[in-house]
Design a protein that fits this description.
single chain, mainly alpha, two-stranded antiparallel sheet, 4 helices, elongated, Matrin/U1-like-C_Znf_C2H2, Znf_C2H2_type
């Protein structure tokens, strides 16, 4: 049974660099790529149109599914009752 030829360590090493300016170009290219990635993340965070704000509880909900769950929850329902009670009694804001 034949064994596969083991890789020669010299063959797998990268070729020597002959130009010093080439390294600077690679660094600049990497910086540009990183800047575009960070910009894309920042735009995603700021441009998330699916985020909803619950004005009663003063919290941000990231999706419509999360908003539905929150609106059905005990805490939101309790705060709604307190707010409705405060409005009917003539108070401006509920006391917590």
């Amino acid at each position: 049974m034949k064994r596969p030829k083991s890789p020669d360590p010299l063959e797998s090493s990268p070729p020597p660099r002959s130009q010093e300016g080439h390294e600077e170009e690679e660094d600049e290219e990497e910086e540009r790529k990183l800047a575009s990635v960070h910009r894309a993340k920042r735009e995603r965070r700021q441009g998330s149109s699916s985020a909803t704000m619950c004005q009663v509880c003063n919290i941000q909900l990231n999706s419509s599914a999360q908003a539905q769950i929150h609106y059905r929850g005990k805490t939101h329902q309790r705060r709604l009752r307190r707010l409705a009670k405060a409005v009917t009694t003539g108070r401006d804001a509920p006391i917590y």
